[in-house]
Amino acid sequence: MRCRLGWHQWRTKSTEDGGRFQQCTRCDKVDDRSKLPPIAGGLG
Ligand SMILES: [Zn+2]
How far is ligand 1, taken at its centre, from the CA of residue 41, in Å? Predict the structure, then answer.
């Protein structure tokens, strides 16, 4: 199991909110660091 060694097979996924994150295709682990907030802009 490569996942136990930290060799995850990240796959970029997107949420309905427009946010994006990476999830491993093998263990379904979600990379919190890759979490990005929904498209910002237009504020002000
Ligand atoms: Zn994994």
Answer: 33
